[in-house]
Amino acid sequence: MTADRMEQMVKLWASDEAWVASARERLRSLGWFMKRLKEPLSRMVNKAEKCTGSFFEGRYKSIAILDEHALLSVCA
Hints:
It is built from four helices and no strands. It is mostly helical. The chain starts with a helix and ends with a helix.
């Protein structure tokens, strides 16, 4: 895709208020982001290793970070 074509598409999408609202809602969702991240990665790894299943199977979870000590622990 050329840069001009991409610019045209971005302008078209940006002018569609419903699409912009939908995109903003999706981008606020960690679950949506993880789905978009892991699906192509899973397909690639499964093909290379001739196996099936989710790449992050059992590894993705959320925890509450309630204070600065917990935040520093997670960052470490």
